Amino acid sequence: MKSCIIILVFLCACVSCQIADRRTTSDVHVKQDGRHQPEYYGYEQHCPDAEDIAPCVCTYESFSLELRCSRVESEEQLKQIFKADFPFKNFTHFYFEDNNNIKVLEAGVFNGIGFENIHIYYNDLEVIELQALDSCYETTTDLYLYYNKITSFPFDELSQFSKLSNFALTGNSLSVIPADAFHGLTALEYLDIGGNNADIVGTFQDLPNYYHTCPVH
């Protein structure tokens, strides 16, 4: 009889431990400093802590991981945001729109974070430095830079974008666009460089999938 009781107590203790372990696994959403992280209850957390990347906003829904940074106030703040702890290094979308504060997208600003689709629209952005997009060489398929004030773009690094299929620099302030910079972009299908009043230097070659260009106006 005593043996039965001992076995029963042991089994109950094991069950209690398993329940506690499951509870611990699913409830880990509070950091040691007391700040709450998004509750994911058994699912992997995709976004950084919201307080660490504000005013940028990260969302994850239907397998789409997006980052919106339109309210950033300075180049230094943008760099600091990307020093946060990012659980995932590859995002589906990056949005930066209607911002009058950022004039220069600085080299290495994304600090190793890559994006498949980059949407930079209607800003006062003037300069994109060499290697500003270096973390996106192997991830970006769509790079849209519509209606900014860009006078300087790192055309020399375009050939390193191995997956780039759609590229737009429409409505900026470029004076020269070196067509030779597009050589070797084997995935490029669509190119829009209209609205710059720029001289095109060189020829478009080595673009096996390329089918459409919106020309300079």
TrEMBL record:
Entry-linked InterPro entries: Dev_Immune_Receptor, Leu-rich_rpt, LRR_dom_sf
Keyword field contains Signal: yes
Presence of the UniProt keyword Magnesium in the record: no
UniProt keywords, alphabetically: Signal
Protein name: Oplophorus-luciferin 2-monooxygenase non-catalytic subunit
Signal peptide: 1-17
Single GO cellular component term: extracellular space
Pfam families referenced in this protein's UniProt entry, alphabetically: LRR_8
